[in-house]
């Protein structure tokens, strides 16, 4: 049985902090559950563009409000308390925070590796509006991938 509190993981390799958000990784691949579980707080006034090549993600909003843009379909959704969204097709998406922070509970399958995001998401990797600008990723990427916002492996 795994029992873990947020206080136990703050300021550890499970606490990933960027200019746009902070993610506390409660469960990771090493925990053997087959999925990962994160609490992510998105900072006010930020925009972040992402997609996941190797993960599906379900997100439940437990606080705050913001916009979620589906970049492939051109749709925009308001995300607020008690709203869930699922990135079920490796969707390219952009989250936009207008006012106060937003808190999300996120589940990813396949599970995220411990410390993996820290290697890929250093503060210097974030460009204007929080777009990831890293050259390549841990699982490899093409030169074409480097021209677009990072799709996290």
Q: What do you see in this structure?
A:
The protein has 153 residues and is mainly beta. Helix content is 8%, strand content 41%. It has a single domain, classed as Jelly Rolls. Strand 2 and strand 3 form a beta hairpin.
- Widest beta sheet: strand line-up: 1-2-3-10-5-8
Written as H for each helix and E for each strand, in order along the chain, the element string is HEEEEEEEEEEHHE
Cα-based radius of gyration, to the nearest Å? 15 Å
CATH architecture: Sandwich
Integer tally of domains: 1
Strand content: 35-45%
Number of helices: 3
Helix- and strand-based class? mainly beta
The name of the CATH topology is Jelly Rolls
Sheet with the most strands, sense and barrel status = 6 strands, antiparallel
**Global geometry:** globular
Distance between the termini: 28 Å
The CATH class name reads Mainly Beta
Could you name the CATH homologous superfamily? Jelly Rolls
Mean pLDDT: 77
Segments where pLDDT lies below 50 for 5+ residues? 117-153
How many strands appear in the DSSP assignment? 11
Helix content: under 10%
Question: In short, what is this structure?
Answer:
Helices cover 8% and strands 41% of the residues. With 153 residues, it is mostly beta strands.
Keywords:
153 residues, mainly beta, Jelly Rolls, six-stranded antiparallel β-sheet, five-stranded mixed β-sheet, 3 helices, 8% helix, 41% strand, disordered C terminus
């Amino acid at each position: 049985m795994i029992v873990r509190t947020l206080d136990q993981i703050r300021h550890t390799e499970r606490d990933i902090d960027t200019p746009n958000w902070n993610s506390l990784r409660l469960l990771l691949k090493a925990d053997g559950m087959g999925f990962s579980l994160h609490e992510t707080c998105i900072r006010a006034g930020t925009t972040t563009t992402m997609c996941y090549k190797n993960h599906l993600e379900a997100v439940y909003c437990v606080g705050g409000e913001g916009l979620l843009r589906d970049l492939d379909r051109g749709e925009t959704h308001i995300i607020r308390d008690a709203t869930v969204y699922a990135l079920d097709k490796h969707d390219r998406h952009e989250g936009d925070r207008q006012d106060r922070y937003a808190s999300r509970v996120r589940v990813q399958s396949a599970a995220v590796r411990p410390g993996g995001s820290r290697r890929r998401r250093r503060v210097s990797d974030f460009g204007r509006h929080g777009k990831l600008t890293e050259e390549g990723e841990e699982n490899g990427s093409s030169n074409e991938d480097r021209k677009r916002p990072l799709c996290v492996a």
